[in-house]
């Protein structure tokens, strides 16, 4: 999806978030930093340790304590020859923030940044830069803790949660509340990726439906519950804010043609 026209102030925070996510990725073991090794196995092992250090592990979030060596010793290593390492100085509450800037691969990063680029500007314009930044971070942290409390049990409780998906899902939910009738150019796979301009309520409603349906699919490695929680939190937060401001109806971005 693309071509959601925006004629307001430059969405500086959205652009800075995109730049920061890209820089963190490039500097990490999944990017181009040679300090993490020169072979694929070495970099894969480094990425595992990197995500364990900076990702949000549900068991750590709920206990507010990093996993110990004893806890990790009985777990099978996700990668052969790459044992899990304890991170005794990790602060789990801060990892709920740092995890928002850690991505597992190029596709993970680019997919998230595309959504932020398309939908972040409209929400940032309505909230203002500082409130948008606080909204983005708060919804992302809430999605992480919500996932840990509701869905992060069993083996999933020890798997690092990484990526900006929860925060960006909150941006999508907020956009749906603010601009339900705005038109977004969308590539439709079922129609050989034919670009169509569809209303935001349809595009984002279908996206949310896919996330909800995917909750029942096991073993995907994607924390769909965090997407659902983030989207719902973003929508409800701006719905409550609008009610308190005395405004109840939907809006339409003047820079987007119906």
Structural features:
258 residues, 2 strands, two-stranded antiparallel sheet, mainly alpha
Concise account of the structure shown:
This protein has 258 residues and is mostly helical. The chain is 55% helix and 5% strand.
How much helicity do the residues have? 55-70%
Going by helix content, strand content and strand pairing, the class is mainly alpha
Give me the count of strands: 2
Low-confidence stretches: 190-194, 248-258
Strand content: under 5%
Order of helices and strands: HHHHHHHHEEHH
What gyration radius follows from the Cα positions, in whole Å? 19 Å
Please report the distance between the alpha carbons of the first and last residues.
Answer: 16 Å
Mean pLDDT: 85
Strand count, sense and closure of the main sheet?
2 strands, antiparallel
Q: Label the overall shape.
A: globular
Structure description:
- The chain has 258 residues and is mainly α.
- The chain is built from ten helices and two strands, in the order H-H-H-H-H-H-H-H-E-E-H-H.
- The chain has helices at residues 12-27, 40-54, 58-63, 69-73, 92-98, 106-127, 129-150, 165-178, 200-214, 224-244; strands spanning 183-188, 194-199.
- A two-stranded antiparallel ribbon has the order 1-2.
- A hairpin with a 5-residue loop joins strand 1 (183-188) and strand 2 (194-199).
- The longest helix has 22 residues, at 106-127.
- The protein is globular and about 55 Å long.
- 39% of the residues are buried.
- Residues 190-194 and 248-258 have low confidence and may be disordered.
């Amino acid at each position: 999806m693309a071509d959601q026209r925006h004629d307001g102030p430059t969405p500086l925070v959205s652009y800075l978030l995109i730049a920061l996510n890209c820089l963190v990725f490039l500097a990490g073991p999944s990017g181009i930093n040679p300090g993490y090794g020169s072979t694929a196995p070495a970099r894969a092992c480094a990425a595992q340790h990197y995500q364990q250090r900076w990702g949000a592990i549900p068991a750590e979030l709920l206990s507010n304590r990093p996993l110990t060596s004893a806890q990790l010793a009985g777990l099978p290593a996700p990668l052969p020859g790459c044992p899990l390492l304890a991170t005794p100085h990790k602060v789990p509450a801060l990892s709920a923030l740092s995890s928002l800037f850690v991505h597992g691969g190029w596709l993970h990063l680019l997919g998230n940044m595309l959504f932020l680029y398309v939908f972040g500007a409209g929400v940032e314009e309505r909230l203002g830069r500082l409130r948008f930044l606080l909204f983005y971070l708060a919804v992302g942290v809430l999605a992480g803790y919500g996932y840990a409390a509701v869905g992060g049990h069993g083996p999933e409780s020890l798997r690092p949660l990484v990526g900006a998906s929860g925060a960006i899902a909150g941006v999508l939910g907020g956009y749906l509340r603010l601009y339900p009738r705005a038109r977004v150019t969308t590539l439709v796979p079922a129609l050989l990726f034919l670009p169509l301009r569809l209303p935001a309520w349809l595009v984002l409603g279908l996206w949310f439906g896919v996330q909800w349906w995917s909750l029942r699919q096991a073993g995907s490695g994607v924390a769909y519950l965090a997407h659902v929680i983030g989207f719902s939190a973003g929508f409800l937060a701006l719905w409550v804010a609008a009610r308190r401001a005395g405004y109840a109806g939907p809006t339409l971005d003047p820079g987007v043609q119906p």
